[in-house]
Amino acid sequence: MRIILVGYGVVGKGVTTILARRYMEKIANYGFNPKVVAIADVDGAVINARGFSAEKLEKFKQKGYPLSADPDFGHQGMSALEVIESVEAEVVVEVTPVNIKNAEPALSYITKAFKTGKHVVTTNKGPLALAMPALTELAAHNNVFLRFSGTVGGGTPMLEFAKRCLAGDKILAIKGILNGTTNYILSEMGQNCISFQDVLANAQKLGYAEREPSMDIDGFDTACKVVILSNWVMGKKVTLKDVNITGIREVTLELLQDAAKRYSTIKLIGTVEDKEVSVKPVEVPWANPLCVSGVLNAVTFQTEYAADQTLIGRGAGGIETANAVLRDLLDIRHKLASKLLS
Amino acid sequence: MRIILVGYGVVGKGVTTILARRYMEKIANYGFNPKVVAIADVDGAVINARGFSAEKLEKFKQKGYPLSADPDFGHQGMSALEVIESVEAEVVVEVTPVNIKNAEPALSYITKAFKTGKHVVTTNKGPLALAMPALTELAAHNNVFLRFSGTVGGGTPMLEFAKRCLAGDKILAIKGILNGTTNYILSEMGQNCISFQDVLANAQKLGYAEREPSMDIDGFDTACKVVILSNWVMGKKVTLKDVNITGIREVTLELLQDAAKRYSTIKLIGTVEDKEVSVKPVEVPWANPLCVSGVLNAVTFQTEYAADQTLIGRGAGGIETANAVLRDLLDIRHKLASKLLS
Question: What residues contact B254, with CB distance under 8 A and at least 6 apart?
Fold first, then answer.
C-alpha cells in the first residue's frame, strides 16, 4: 500500500513513527505492507516512488523542517495538490490543521485525492464538519474509501466501536464528553474551585488549551465530532450548521457547587438524538460512567438491547491519533482485500 | 443460515425473541437470513427443517415447557446430542447452564457440533474455562468457527472491542470488573456500610445473586472470564487452573472504610498481565474509570499507543446476552462470506 502523507505536524510525524516501528514487528501479522512514497508539507515535498525506509523516515523527523531540503528526495515549493495529483499511490493520509470556516486546504486535498482515485484517511474534522454528506457521496462516486477514526476520540476507537462492535443492535442515542480541554477546565473548576479564567490560563500554560481557545470552549470542536458521529453512526445527513451549540463560558463556580450538592457536576456534552443534535453544558451525576475527569473523553451509546455502553479513553495526543490512522489503513487494506475477491 | 438452538432458558428464549423481531427489520441490512431449524431442551426437541416462523417462535415462548409437546414439530425424549448429529444446520447456538467441574453437557454438545461440521456460538463459560486452548484447536481442525461474545461482559462487546477496535495497537494488560454480583455486593458494602452477609442476603432476594453464590463471590465466574480474555485477546494458552483466585469473603467493612480515606474502594479485579493471570480484591481509586458501581461491568485495556481504554456496560441479562449471540451469528456470516470468496 503506497501512502502520500499530507501534513507533517505532530500527527504526521507520529504516523511515520508508528509505520517505521511497525514495519518490523506487528504489521506483518496483518499482511499489510505500507510504504510512504511522499510527504507534503507547506514548503514542499519529499518523494520516493519506491517508498522511504524506516531509517529514512526517522532521519526526516530528526532533521526537521524543511523536509523538502533533502538533497536526494526533496522537491522545494511543490504543492500538496501537485503531489496528490502526480505521485502514484493508493492512499492519501491527510493530517493538516483544522479550519472550520471553509475547511481549506484539507477539503481541496481530499477531493483531489478522490478524483485521482485515491482512498483518504484524515484526522481533520474541518472537511467532515462542513461537508460530510457530500464527501461521503463523492468517495462512493469515485469508488474509494474515506476513513477518519482519529477525528473523534483521538486514540480511543469510538467510531469503530459504534460501527463494528454494536452490529446487530440499534443505537438509539449518543452522549459524549468529546473535548479534553473543556473537560479539564470544568474538572479543575469543580474539584478545586478555581475560576474559569485562572484554569484557562493554566491550561494554556500546560498546553491543554490553545492560545485562541474558542474552538474548544465555545463548543465547536465538540460540535464537529457530533456531526461526524451523527453521519457515521446514526446515518443522519447533517453538517455543523445543524448543531445547536452552547460552550462553557457561562458555567460558573456557583453552578458547579450547586450541582455538587446533588452529587453531580457539569460537563460539556455532545448529544445525538432522534430529533436533536446539540452541544451544551449538562448536569451529570458523579455515579454516571460518563462522568470522567481531567482530559479524558467518554461516550455513551444508548442501545436497544444492550443498554448503555460507555467507552472512555484519552481523547487526544499525537501518537494516539497517529495510531488511529494506522487502524484506518488496516481497515482500508481489509476492505480492499474483500473487494478484490468479490 | 440454519441454526440449532441448544438450551431454552432465559438466554435461549432471548435469542428466539431477538431473531423473531429482527427478521422483519434490521437483519435484512446485513444480508443475513437466520432460520431456527431446531430447539433442544432437557426433555426433547422441536424440529422443522424449513425453519420456524417468527410467529411460531413467539408461540413456543408463550406456551412454555415442555417444548417437545408441540403436536406438529415435537420430538419428546430426543437428546440434544441426537439433534446436533441428525439435523442439518450451519450453526449450533449452545446456551445451556454453566458447569465448571467438567463443563458437561455443554462440552459434549460443542465437540459434537464441531465433529459434524457445525459452527458454534456459545454463551457458556464452562467449556471455555476448562478447555479453551483445546476447543480452539478442535474448531480450527474441523474448519469451523467458535464464537462466545456473550461469555464476557454480557451485552457489552468486550471481546470484540479488544479484537477489532484495537487492531494495529498492542494490548499490554487487561484489568476488569467482570462480575456484576460481586460488584453489587462491594458497592453496597462500601457506599452504605452494610455487612457482607446482609448485602448477600439482599442480593439473593433481588435475584442478583444465586442461592449457591460461590461461583460469584469466590471469584470463579471472574476467573472463567479472565481465561477467555487471556486466550482470545492476549494469545495465552491457559485454563482455569492457571488462574490465581481470591474471592471477596475477606473484604470487610473496615478495609472498605480504610480505602475510602484514600479516595479509593475495593473491587474484585480480574487481571491478565504478561506474567500473571489472577482474580483478587484490589484497591481502586474512585477517579479511575474502571471504578464503576452497582451491577455494572468494566474493563480497561492498557495499550501501547492509545493509553488506557475502558469499556463499561451492563454485564448480564437475558436479552443482552442474546444480543451477543446475534453479534456472533453476524460475525460468522461475515467470515463465511469472505471465506467463500477467497
Answer: none
* pTM of the predicted model as reported, rounded to 2 decimal places: 0.90
Which residues in chain A touch residue B312, judged by CB atoms under 8 angstroms apart? 289, 309-312
B245 φ, ψ to 5°? Answer: -115, 125
Q: How many CB atoms lie within 10 A of CB B211?
A: 5
> What's at B122, amino acid-wise?
T
Active site residue A56: no
Question: Residue for cell digits 464503576?
Answer: B292
When pLDDT is averaged across residues B49-54 and rounded to a whole number, the result is: 92
Catalytic hit among A56, A118, A175, A225: A225
What does R_g of chain B's alpha carbons equal in angstroms?
21
Size of interface A-B (CB pairs under 8 A): 139
Q: For chain A, which ranges sit under pLDDT 50? A: 342
Q: State ipTM.
A: 0.87
Question: Which residue segments constitute the domains of chain B, with CATH numbers given?
Answer: 2-155+319-341 (3.40.50.720), 158-314 (3.30.360.10)
What DSSP designation does B163 have? I
End-to-end CA distance of chain A: 19
Interface subset of A 14-33, CB within 8 angstroms of B: 18, 22, 26, 30
The DSSP H or E segment spanning A2 is: strand A2-6
CB contact under 8 A, A164 and B165: yes
Residue A71 gets which letter from DSSP?
T
| B170 shares contact with chain A (CB less than 8 Å) | yes
What would the DSSP string read from start to end of A166-196? TTTS-EEEEEEE--HHHHHHHHHHHHH---H
- A155/B contact by beta carbon, under 8 A: yes
A13 Cα distance to chain centroid: 15
Interface test with A, best of B309, B314, B330, B333 (most A CBs within 10 A): B309
Is B295 in contact with B185 (CB distance < 8 Å)?
no
Mean pLDDT (whole number) for B84-111: 96
Q: Do A298 and B307 touch (CB under 8 A)?
A: no
- Determine contact, residues A314/A295, Cβ cutoff 8 Å: yes
- Which chain B residues are Cβ-neighbours of A319 within 8 angstroms? 305
The closest alpha carbon to A73, from A38, A122, A31, belongs to: A38
Q: Taking each helix axis as running N to C, give the angle between helix A106-115 and helix A125-141, from 0 to 180 degrees, rounded to the nearest 10.
A: 10
Please indicate if any CB of chain B lies within 8 Å of the CB of A308. Answer: yes
H helices present in chain A, as ranges: 10-24, 54-63, 80-86, 106-115, 125-141, 158-160, 180-192, 196-206, 214-217, 220-234, 253-261, 318-341
A312 at B interface, C-beta within 8 A: yes
